[in-house]
Every structure is written in C-alpha cells, then in structure tokens.
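Reopening this ticket.

The earlier resolution said the output was attached, but the attachment link was broken on my side. Pasting everything inline this time so it's all in one place.
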Amino acid sequence: MNTLSPKQFLENNILLFDGAMGTYMAQLFRDSQAKCELANLKNPDRVLAIHQAYISAGAAAIKTNTFGANPELLEADLAFTEEVITAGWRLAAQAAQNAARPPFIFADIGPIPPHDGADLAAEYRAIIDIFLRLGAENFLFETFSSADILPELAAYIKEKCANAFVITSFAVQPDGFSREGTAGSEMFAAAAACPQIDAVGFNCVSGPYHLREYIKGFKQTAKTLSVMPNAGYPTVINNRTFFGSNPEYFAEQMGQIAALGAKILGGCCGTTPEHIAAASTMLQNRSHRITGDVEENTAELTNQPQLNRFKQKVDAGKRVLAVELDPPPNDNISQFMEKATVLQQLGVDIITVADCPIARARMDSSLIACKLRRELNIDVLPHMTCRDRNLNAIKALLLGLSVENVNNVLIVTGDPIPTAERDEIKSVFNFNSRMLAKYINSLNETALTTPFHICGALNINAVNFDVQLRLAKEKIANGMQMLLTQPVLSEKAALNLRRAHQELHAKILGGIMPVISHRNACFMNNEIAGINVCQEIIDLYEGKTKEEGLALAVKTSVEIAKQIAADCDGFYLMTPFNRVDIISDIVNELREIGAL
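Inline output:
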C-alpha cells in the first residue's frame, strides 16, 4: 500500500483518481446489473479487472465499487449491504496490493435518497462504521446535491479515525446548480468551512469544459480542490447510453482544470481507463499554463435593474391589494383581458394568476402574466408550481419572465394530478416550494439583473397549524418575502392569521374569498382542499335568493377584511367564478371605510 497519506502526497503531486465503474462496466458487459455494486458479489472478476485497468492507466487513487451500497438503493437490509461493501473493499484492496505502485483506496459513499421515517445521519454512520471496521482511512462522499449532512459525517469519521482523509464532492449542472436548486458555490463554501473536511469539489452531471468554466470563478481556499467531471454528455443508441468524449480532449480540459488550482482530478460517468491514461500522460507533461482558448469575458453588462413597483410599495409599509383571476381553459383570452382591465381601472396593486388550479390544464399563468404586463402595464404575480417542470424548465421560464419585467412570483408545490389521469399525466416534482424558493433566491444573487420578489402560500385552515408555521419559517429562511394565505372563513383561520403575523418575519396578505350562495359555501367547505367555511357563514346563506347571496358575499367579505386588517399587510382577494363585479363592490367598500 501507499506509504504516504493523501495529504502528504498532495504536497508535491496532483492526485489522479480512476474513472467510472458503472458506465464502464455497462460498456464492457451487456449483461451488467442495473446496480453495479451487486457485481462485487456476482461478478467480482469484472470489478477486479476494472480496478486493475485504471491502476495500469495511471490512477493513483481508486474508489471502491460502493457508490450506491446502502439499504435504500440496494433494496436490502444492512446485513446484505455490509456484504456488498465488504466485497467491494476487498476487491479494491486486492487490486491495489497487486499493483507495482499501490494506489490509495477511497471508501466511496453516494447520497442516500430521503425516505419516510429515515434517520439519514444514522444510516450514513452505519455505512461509515462498516468501512472503518474494514480498515478504511480515506473517504469520498460524491455526487451530493446538498452539504447539509456532510460536516456531521466528516466529524464522525475524524472522531473515529483522526488520520482519515475526507473528500466531499457535489454534482452541479453546467449552470452551477444542483438538481435540488442549490448553488454549487453555496455547497462548496459550507463544506470548505468544515475543519474535518480535507478536500472539496465537484463531480458528475457536467462535462470537463463546463466544470472548468465553473471553477474559474472560485476564490482560492485552504481546502484542496477536487474535480472529477463526466466524460461529456450522454446519447442513447438502441436503448443503450454512450458517452462520446475523446480521451485526448478530456485530458486537455483536465490539464486546464489543474492549472486553475485543482489538486485532485479524476473521472465520473462515461470515463474509461483510456481517459485516465490520457490524463495521466498530460499531468506528466503538463506546463501549468492555461491555453489560449480560455478567455476572460470582459464585456460589460448593459442590463439595468428594473423597478419592481409592487415590492417598492410593500417595502414602504403601504397596504397592498392582490386579486386573483383564474386563467381560461381554452385559447379565448378576450374575456379574461376585459376583466383584468376592470381590475386595473379599479386600482388593484397586482393581479395573481393560478398555475393550472386543481391540476387541470389551463392557459399558462406565466404567458398570461407577460401579456398583462406588456399590454396593461399592471404588476402581475404568476403562480409557479413544482409539479410540471424540472429545474432547467423553471430556470428558462424565470429568465423569460425577467426579460418581460414580471419580477414577482408565487411559489407553490402544486395540486396533485387527479387519480384518474395519473397514468397519462406524470407530475414532475424536482423539489418542493421551499427548495424552489431557495433556488430562485440563488438566481437572484448570481444570474439576474432584477431579482424576483418571491411569494408563497400559507394555509391558515390547516388542522395542524404548527406544522404550517414551521414550513413557513423554512420558506422565509430560503428567500420568500411575502405569504398569501388561504381564505379566512372561520374564527380559527382568523386566529391562525394573527399568530402568523406575530411569529413570521414576512409580509402577509390575508386571503378573502367571497361566498356567493349556500351551495357555493357547501361546495368550498367539502370539495376544495385548504378551505374551511364555518357553519355560521354557511347558515347565513340558507334560503337566500341569488341577489341576496351576492349582497351577503360583499358584506361578509368586508367584515372579514375589517376583522383581519390589523394582522396582515394587505388583502388577497380570490375572484369567485371570475366575477370582477363582486370584487369591485368589495374594493370600493373597503376604500370607503379606510381599510385600503
């Protein structure tokens, strides 16, 4: 085995890791297991041969074939997981022992997917303990999309093995964000601040060029920088995934990454022993110069921040009025625009547009928002769900909204797809509303000339309001600045709103939804999630005519607004059946009594 520690080795050398195990094994053997870690038990000769090929190619460090070796991904118990890890460790040790220049062996640990009732820290510790019993001193946590748990795990390792060397590596897309929407720079800084972590960097998802470009903006830290990109980007041919990157191109990019200060290099998905051999040759002949194709972009940004009128009014402490209009279910926009014009003339501060409410397809809220902003010059608050778009689609949409000067968004997780349609329509939940808020907040700081004013929802009708308050505090911590509540239609909701006003450090718009009939009250109370109409209000509408119901809708809504005015920073009116005439009557009465 290597007589030096990784820390000693890195004082005068670049530490070159091996490349991919799973994708390379799939390339070599068509009958490979989907879970390549199972090959430790079923096809150990294959694993051993791949380790030996990477060592022969020049790798000074190899990873155990245990990236997905945890009970959740193996769909097995801890005892079986230990068998897989033990076999993986012994195969790596055998390959190292037979090498002319024995490489360092790193215990490879990948992220454990969150699951119900999981104590992830305990699950990671159990895996770490297996490796420690086997004699592991070097650990690689790779392809993580959050740094939250890593300092705790690194401290646990160092407590058990003071001489351990710990690398943490994050997976970011070419734009520098993880699949959960966390900025790579934020994860890097969190890991670098941990004294028990020895090296920090990036691997997977992105190819060498994009990771090279990404780390160019990083400031030097005392931590060793690790970069292990994919070979490139995959294509699918005959239902098989291929990475077409040329090993010489990969090596050239790795040379430039080394010149930018990375001391630990290696490869992830798609890399082969040929890629590592080319990188090893490059390192032996490197000149530590960045070649001429790396150019500094000195062009000045011409965009200037736009004024967010709605946010400016909110920040000035003025009471604001938001009114919601449901988007049309077809491409006839004329009536919607007429109603929006009425609201504009009424002087509402912002129009909110739901994103396919109750998960039924309607006209896109963001496209409508752009049209309203452009044609009526009114501020708009499109709802944005986590249900139908992945990270790339959401970022593209946000950039488009920013160009159109739509700089307010309301983030919601989104209603689930109705059961009858789930076989045909799939939800896309990359993250929840709290995670999405954090992502947009990161974009505000890194990619946008005019930052978004991020709003969210608060369910004051929840059975367990303590949970809603906890979630709201997480939303605010992640960048939400304003919360719009579900409608107040009961004394309990009003009391919950008061409590939220006292405990939450964010602006709150109290929700008001006019009830227009006894049937309407019963329907909302029984059929719409998040709405609770008290029996007293339901009884008010018993036996009333249509005209009497409409008059009650205005009267009741104004009374509710007066009741909650001291506990909110404005009102959020939900238009019943897009009846803007009712909203107009409510707004006019609120102005008469000085509530607006």
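Reporter confirms the inline version is readable. Residues 6-284 form a domain with the TIM Barrel fold (CATH 3.20.20.330). The radius of gyration is 29 Å.
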